[in-house]
Write a structure and sequence with these properties.
The protein has one domain: Sandwich (lipopolysaccharide transport protein A fold), CATH 2.60.450. The protein is mainly beta. The radius of gyration is 26 Å and the shape is globular. A hairpin with a 4-residue loop joins strand 4 and strand 5.
Amino acid sequence: MKKLIFPVLAILPFLFVSCSLDYGTQNEQQKRILPEMILSDVNFTRIEKFEDTATLQAATLEIFKEDDTIYGNDINFKSYDKKKVTATGSSEFIKIDNRTSIYLLLGKTNINSIKNGITINSDNLKWNDKTSQLTAESDSIVTIHKQPDAKNNTALTVTGSGFAFSALSLNYVFNGKVNALIETQN
């Protein structure tokens, strides 16, 4: 028994001296790769002045503290004004950059402005929250559909590339090839 205890006691100091348990030595690349938090089956509500102003649902959200970004998939969102839904949307993937207030909507994306009767579909959209601009890459195809309203009995569907939209003025432009369909009730 004495023969067994001596080798074990002789090895113990080397184990404690040679082993480092410091996990705080991640390099910068490792910090960016690993999310601070992963949330599943997410439901967020933004409340301002005691009223819901927006909701967000996601299958998964990954939060990266180091670059202040959030990545998510299977996204659904709504915005409200005076307790009425003004817009809805969905996207397969989202990247939120909180430092720049830029939201990238990737994969099949649909935005429906109920208030304005406009639907926007694309696979690649970028929302700039500071400027209220919605844009797409120059080669991305975007379809806009404008519903007829009480003033105008005309429906408009435009598909094209080089898309930019101002949520402030409700003006949009296509800088690439465009196809359009105008339907009138008359």
